[in-house]
Write a structure and sequence with these properties.
This protein folds into 4 domains: 22-109, Immunoglobulin-like, CATH 2.60.40; 113-201, Immunoglobulin-like; 205-381, Cathepsin D, subunit A, domain 1; 388-559, Cathepsin D, subunit A, domain 1 (Beta Barrel), CATH 2.40.70. With 560 residues, it is mainly β. The relative contact order is 0.10.
């Protein structure tokens, strides 16, 4: 019998599967915006026929439609990295094997601020000095720009140094007290810093010695003459000279020095001249010239001063009795530290017929003068101690003494040596600097004037104040020293206060006497009550500048 053996066989599909293909390319990010000078990384993602995806950033070919706006790299290691070149827009695409990507739009904005550098980085200055800081911004395109006037400046310790945000002085730090402070410049969330160190400096930096008929005065000095020294320099240089025998005058404004004493200033080239007429009938005449001035150990101040020169130009007839020499005047110059910054102010800005300023050519005629060109009180232009002055002179006994030493202290309440104590402030007129004095039933317009060497007023009939005779006519000569009093009242009407004073016999006091400092001398002055130098003996007298403030109030004011 035959048998059969069965076997099974297996078979399968012998056809090849279809390979996946690239269908599309997408880019990310799709609409980025970057600043000029920065970069943007793009990524290319491929989608295939089987819906799978793959990062193709390093294998596609990248293009930018506007290469001048942004370039894009095909280099190994930086494929798809766009670099912003200029503000604008460009289309970024990627391609591979005939397949092009969707388009990404790259917007390039102007460069953005990346950092701020403040310079100098670690300066050191003394109390009262200033330091100019500069802020430099670095932008996203590596460009730089001076931002000093546009940043916001701050000082971390304002009691050590302040810093200005005011137009024209942005970034100017003023040292107030010893210590350190961080100076910061900021803009739009970006900031930079520097460290400012203020060294001790000491209170003496703002002190100027005064001698009444002492070592700082010339040998031909008249009675009760307060003298100081002032340093004058060629502008912008260290070529300087110190001049003594400068009359300290709280009744005028600005520095005036005789030409023959000024060896450091170049010849006068301008035609602006000035006449200042004084209560005794004399005057000073001469051109206006810019100089660097140093008071005490304070920072230099660049300021117009008057060069006293009676021969300058064709002096107008209304400027009479002009002092010709220091010997004739009795001083080498005048330092006016009175209530105001400018010696004429807005009157001379608007009116040519002001009787003070003249334009000189073949002749000299009245002229208007901007504030910046007027002679100015240098003490009011100091960076720190600029709100007034304090005059300190000791008491003088009846009968007088040979000389007196005191101090002119710059600033009011700005340092430990000029803080007001036990004084009363009397507001003064903002135009004349005067307040009122009541004496013997008569009311006077009055002022406090260290440049006048006596107490000057027209006495009421019942005052028992006869004038001297002979060479001393004009001075008072009572038969015995009189103890008197007057009432001073602020220009605002309050406060009022009694001022005791004494008047002696001028002839008896001065005949055959070596004494030159007297508290009890006075004379006749028409109209006003002039509280001259005798008023200062034994008092702290503050002169508060108009437009400035202190703990005593806003100037102008007198305080004692």
């Amino acid at each position: 019998m035959a048998t059969a053996c069965g076997g099974g066989g297996g078979g399968g599909d012998s056809s090849n599967p279809t390979a996946k293909t690239l269908v599309s390319i997408s880019l990310t990010p799709i609409n980025p915006s970057i600043a000029k000078g920065t970069v943007q990384q793009f990524t290319a993602t491929g989608t295939y026929s089987d819906n799978s995806t793959q990062n193709l950033t390093t294998s596609v070919s990248w293009t930018s439609s506007v290469p001048s706006v942004a370039s894009i790299s095909n280099a190994g290691g930086s494929n798809g990295l766009a670099t912003a070149i200029a503000a604008g827009t460009t289309a970024i695409t990627a391609a591979s094997g005939g397949i092009s990507s969707t388009t990404a739009t790259l917007t390039v904005t102007p460069p953005t601020l990346v950092s701020i550098t403040v310079s100098p980085t670690n300066p050191s200055i003394g109390i009262g000095a200033t330091q100019q800081f500069t802020a430099t911004g670095t932008y996203s395109d590596n460009s730089t720009q001076n931002l000093t006037t546009s940043v916001s400046w701050t000082s971390s310790v304002p009691s050590v140094a302040s810093i200005s945000n005011a137009g024209g002085s942005n970034g100017l730090a003023t040292a107030i007290a010893a210590g350190t402070t961080m100076i910061m410049a900021a803009s739009g969330g970006i900031s930079g810093t520097a460290t400012l160190t203020v060294t001790g400096g000491g209170s003496a930096d703002n002190e100027i010695p005064i001698t009444v008929n002492g070592a700082l005065c010339s040998g031909n000095s008249y009675l009760n003459k307060p003298c100081v020294s002032v340093t004058v320099c060629t502008p912008g240089t260290s070529t300087c000279q110190t001049i003594d025998d400068i009359l300290l005058d709280t009744g005028s404004y600005g520095l005036r020095i005789f030409k023959l004493l000024l060896t450091v200033l170049p010849p006068v080239t301008g035609n602006l001249a000035e006449c200042i007429q004084f209560g005794d009938g004399s005057s000073v005449w001469g051109p206006v010239q810019t100089a660097d001035v140093i008071l005490g150990n304070e920072p230099v101040v660049t300021v117009p001063i008057q060069v006293i020169d009676s021969t300058f130009g064709a002096r107008p007839a209304r400027c009479f009795n002009a002092d010709t020499t220091p010997a004739a005047a009795g001083f080498n110059g005048i330092l006016g530290v009175g209530l105001f910054t400018h010696d004429c102010g807005t009157t001379c800005v608007s009116s040519a017929n002001n009787g003070i300023y003249y334009a000189c050519g073949a002749s000299c005629s009245g002229t208007t003068v901007p504030l910046s060109s007027q002679v100015q009180n240098p003490a009011a232009l100091l960076p720190l101690d600029n709100n007034g002055v304090l005059v300190q002179l000791p008491s003088v006994p009846l009968g007088g003494i040979s000389s007196v030493n005191g101090k002119l202290i710059l600033g009011i309440g700005t340092r430990s040596n000029n803080i007001p104590s036990s004084v009363t402030a009397y507001s003064a007129s903002s135009t004349t600097g005067e307040f009122t004095t009541l004496f013997g039933g008569r009311t006077y317009n009055s002022f406090i004037d260290s440049g006048s060497n006596g107490l000057f007023f027209t006495p009421p009939p019942a005052s028992q104040l006869p004038n001297c005779t002979g060479a001393n006519a004009g001075w008072f000569c009572p038969t015995s020293t009189l103890s008197l009093s007057a009432i001073n009242t602020a220009a605002s009407g309050t406060p009022s206060g009694t001022v005791p004073f004494q008047i002696g016999n001028f002839t008896s006091l001065t005949v055959n006497s070596f004494n030159k400092a007297f508290v009890e001398i006075g004379g006749t002055f028409r109209g006003n009550f002039d509280w001259g130098l005798p008023f200062f003996f034994g008092r702290n007298v503050f002169v508060g500048y108009g437009g400035s403030a202190s703990s005593l109030g806003s100037g102008p004011y007198w305080a004692y």
